[in-house]
Specification:
Rossmann fold, 9 helices, alpha/beta
């Protein structure tokens, strides 16, 4: 994987922790330069200092704000002079509720962060991507393909991300820009740990997640980061509009999954 992304400049939202942080690590190891954009600037700075060995740029970015996204992308271009990849990774999973129990404010917040943010990064970054004939990568989820109970807003956003990925792939193909998404099942991250604690039976839910995958375990985020590197590399040069599962076979067949 070393050198596969050599020379590429990657703007990564939500890069301060979880899947984003592991992707930042993998991108750097593959030779890319990463702008770690996060609403928590301290987390972004720590990621650059400790995970990336001081290589890269930490930038404050509220993905629900057009002005904030514009400033963060401008800072990346000012530092590096180019942009090859936008990885839309920032997201939230709360609230864990059915639709009728979700408040208007909760609904709008999930959509602003998980979905509208892709509009903002594209709006402010597309000209740079046209110049580099770059790529866009969206973090979706298996629940966007399969559904999930008591998680209406989150599922709706991830389903929309998958559909949007396909539309963007068609719109930007004439410019040589590939647009793909990946769809993890359960992956142990701080976001998932937070979600587990919201469930009626957190211990049972954790056990459920450790056994839901056909391969027999709930992985860490490095398994996702390896796929992300592939999708951004020349090895995936003829792939666009893909929503690639990273599921350990969680969606396959009939399995006894417990009673969490």
């Amino acid at each position: 994987m070393a050198g596969e992304l050599a020379g590429k400049v990657i703007f990564l939202t939500g890069g301060g922790q979880g899947i984003g942080r592991e992707c930042a690590r993998a991108y750097t190891q593959a030779g890319a330069t990463v702008a770690v954009a996060d609403i928590n600037l301290a987390a972004a700075e720590d990621a650059v200092a400790t995970t990336l060995g001081g290589h890269g740029l930490a930038v404050a970015c509220d993905v629900a704000s057009s002005a904030s996204v514009q400033e963060a992308i401008a800072a990346t271009l000012a530092r590096y002079g180019r942009l090859d990849v936008i990885h839309n990774n920032a997201g939230i999973s709360s609230p864990s509720k059915p639709l009728h129990e979700t408040t208007n404010e909760q609904w709008e917040r999930v959509f602003d962060i998980n979905l509208k943010s892709i509009y903002y990064t594209t709006l402010h970054g597309i000209e740079a991507l046209k110049a580099s004939r770059g790529s866009i990568l969206n973090t979706a989820s298996m629940v966007g393909l399969l559904g999930q109970e008591n998680h209406a807003a989150y599922v709706a956003t991830k389903g929309a991300v998958i559909a949007l990925t396909k539309a963007m792939a068609l719109d930007y193909a004439p410019f040589g820009i590939r647009v793909n998404a990946f769809c993890p099942a359960a992956v142990w991250t701080p976001l998932l740990r937070e979600w587990v604690q919201e469930q009626p039976n957190p211990a049972g839910t954790e056990d459920f997640l450790n056994h839901i995958h056909a391969l027999g375990f709930c992985p860490k985020a490095d398994v996702v980061a390896d796929v992300a590197v592939f999708l951004l590399s020349d090895r995936a040069r003829f792939m666009t509009g893909v929503a690639l599962p990273i599921s350990g076979g969680a969606e396959l067949g009939y399995r006894r999954l417990g009673t969490a």
